[in-house]
Amino acid sequence: MKPKAKVPLNCLFQGCYNPELEAEIRKCKDQCYRYNQLNPNDLEAQRKILSGLLGRMGENVIFTPPFWCDYGYNISVGDFFYSNHNLIITDGAEVTFGNNVFIAPNCCFTTAEHAIDPQQRRDGLEIAKPITVGNNVWIGAGATVLAGVTIGDNSVIGAGSVVTKSIPSGVVAVGVPCKVMRKITEEDKNRYPVFGQD
Q: Which residues form the Maltose/galactoside acetyltransferase domain (predicted)?
């Protein structure tokens, strides 16, 4: 899907009461609604809606319903992407997911921030900042990733985390606000036995 209205980055813009943006959001919500009503085994119909909704979609992409987003065309998804139930993406700016990304249930990625000043907020001013998730990332259940955040390759975000700042590659990060707990090491490969392997 090609955007009809561009949202400016890194500056306040009229987002809440913009008729053109509101029309695009309504169109997107209609597609999300149709997607969420599909038979969960109708993978062909799911892929057809997603390919028309998302800006870019790799191979082997699964969004387990329900899934909601604002525009859709600002979302780019790599290969072997899996999201569990109740993923919400407010994609006023670009949201980019690399390859081999796993997202647990009830996660939210939000590029939008409303104005801090109450008058600007009443006037409907907001700002949108992109979110980038690298390759081989696992996002735990109930995590929230805020505007402007980058999560590096091979990292794990713990369940319930609120990610307010960027997270480097190759780490386990958790908490409110989310902080790096430790690096991922070779020892993590031996943490659990693999079924069927001696």
A: 13-59
